Every structure is written in structure tokens, then in C-alpha cells.
Amino acid sequence: MQKIVQVTHSPAETMAFAETVGRRLRAGDIIAYTGGLGVGKTTFTRGLAKGMGLPDVVSSPTFAIVQEYHGDGLSLYHFDMYRIADVMELESTGYYDYPLEEGVFAIEWAEHMIEALPPDVIRITLVRLSDDVRQITIEGDERFADLGDGYLGQNGGSGGL
């Protein structure tokens, strides 16, 4: 399994890195986020959406369970599974009714539904190192192999944008 690590030093850097990841996504991709409260999962998703050519007005789906973002290309379905206790509750969320073949699923608190995730899921773990510094680990797909540690620094802090 491919694994890369990137440290970002601001929300803007986190979004820039995520934007680069978002440009590489394709229909059927599932992003499984793990990380505690306030580590930047929604900020990362804003960058993904921008990289996918979608508006970056992404908001946390905490109370809605899912937020949908549509554009000219892929759609993004941003799920929050914080309140899901187990896979049995997943059915009641409507998760299985969304068209994965037409878009990308970004799932916060994916550890609550790990048994329902396919083996080829893209795992993104965010860890808060300090107020603005985040360690982002991506596992599961070789499309992101060149985005490892130092990527932002090698590209002038802009993630190659």
C-alpha cells in the first residue's frame, strides 16, 4: 500500500495540498478521513472540491450527514459519520443511495464504518501538531506517490499550483 506524509503549516497550505490531491481524483474514489475534532478534515475537503473544479464553499456535514457539491465534472459527496455507531446504522443515512460511479465520496469519521469500506479506499489521516501545523498521511493509491513530505516546500509553498 502506497503511503505518503505531508506537513502543512497553515489552513491555506492544507487547502493547497488538498487541491493537488483533488485534481487527481476520479469517479468512484472514496476518501476515508480519520483524525480528531478540529484537525482540518473540512478544510482539506474545501481544497479537494477546488481541485475537482467545484466551488470551495464546503461546509461541515455534521448536522446533515451529507453535503453534495456538483459542477461540470465530478460530483463530491461529503459525509460525516460521527454519529454513526456501527455499519448497521449506515443504511439509515442513505449512504448506499448516492451515485459513487458519478463522483467522489469524502467521508469524515470513516472509522465508524470501516467494515463497509472497499479495500481500494484512499485513507487520509490528519493529525494536529500545533495550532496551524498538520501532518497529513495519504495511504492507498499510487496516484499520490509524488506528493510526499516536502512537496509544498519544493514548490514554493503552493503545492505546485
List keywords for this structure.
alpha/beta, 4 helices, globular, 7 strands
What does this structure look like?
The chain is of the alpha/beta class and 161 residues long. Helix content is 20%, strand content 25%. It has a 7-stranded mixed beta sheet with strand order 1-7-6-2-5-4-3, covered by helices on one side. The model is unreliable at 153-161 (pLDDT under 50).
Question: What does this entry show, briefly?
Answer:
This protein has 161 residues and is an alpha/beta fold. Helices cover 20% and strands 25% of the residues.
Distance between the termini: 27 Å
Radius of gyration (CA) equals 15 Å
Number of strands: 7
Low-confidence stretches: 153-161
Give the SSE order as H and E letters: EHEHEEHEEEH
Q: Tell me the major beta sheet.
A: 7 strands, mixed
Helix content: 10-25%
Structural class: alpha/beta
Note the beta-strand portion.
15-25%
Could you outline the blueprint of secondary structure elements for this entry?
Layout: E1 3-8, H1 11-23, E2 30-34, H2 41-51, E3 66-69, E4 75-80, H3 87-90, E5 103-108, E6 122-128, E7 134-139, H4 151-154
Parallel strand pairs: 2-5, 2-6, 4-5
Antiparallel strand pairs: 1-7, 3-4, 6-7
